[in-house]
Please model this.
Amino acid sequence: MVKLTQRLGGLVLRFAAFCAALGAVIAMITSRERSSFFVLSLVARYSDLAAFKYFVIANAIVSVYSFLVLFLPKESLLWKFVVVLDLMVTMLLTSSLSAAVAVAQVGKRGNANAGWLPICGQVPRFCDQITGALIAGLVALILYVFLLIFSIHSVVDPFLLRKS
Amino acid sequence: MAKLALAATSGKGCKILLGLRVLAFLATLSAAIVMGLNKETKTFVVGNVGNTPIKATFTAKFQHTPAFVFFVVANVMVSFHNLLMIALQIFGGKKDLTGFRLLSVAILDMLNVTLISAAANAAAFMAEVGKNGNKHARWDKICDRFATYCDHGAGALIAAFAGVVLMLIISAVTISRLVQPNKCCSTAATPSVVP
Model:
């Protein structure tokens, strides 16, 4: 009975992380805005900045991985491998999120010392959608940290207790 | 995977882990120090009044960019964590709470792996924007004017990425020690959690 609720909890967490990562990807891909600035027309796309491209790719990998692990059978020997992959995926998520937040912060506030002007004043809807995508990425990261601790608890602890 | 677990349970595995931790400590500490002391001042000619040029002095410091501040702080934290683990391994071998200690070391190592990878990546992408600029956002590159600042930053980034790889290996070894607890890092022969 305990094992069933454990497995169900793990499945729910992973499905929620899959949804969050997928939401982050979709929100960032569909963010595009055109604004006219006197005679200049500025089109803001997520692919203008390398950090956002990395964010999209990383979260796409994470969502595909979560989807595949959802269907892993209970008694498979691959569960130990899932612990290692969970750690690497958490690293991927946190690095992509922090890179995207670092660059988005420059876009929002600018950098007075380098002479970089903020762009959020001209494309506010783009900025809001990017913020939403970053929040979804943060939710996916938090869920994956819980999943990592959960995987270690369910894969490793039973071994420690059964070994005598 | 099985060979890694086997290596982690032998006495030599402890020395390898200690060596890895010392290397990671040195890498992250040097990254923090090099980026923390990163500063360059240059004087440029910004205009001409008649025949006399007007000069202005500009400084490039790491504090101007929040991502670099996060980089320095995170590297200091990770190197402190490694120092603590080294001290624990050398001096704390006689404690009895082996089950809890192994788990807490593993969890702390995982958290620090994510921290250092986040810091290194944020600084790397900010450095890429500084090096290449961005045509769409009309951000000029700064590396052609502050070459020494950029070079020092690149060196710190390389050290931090070496620290990321080392921390990942250390974390993998520590997690595999959870599966098969070894005897070298604790004088109690069997973990006290086992009934």
About this structure: Confidence is low (pLDDT under 50) at residues 158-164 of chain A. The first strand of chain A starts at residue 32 and ends at 37.
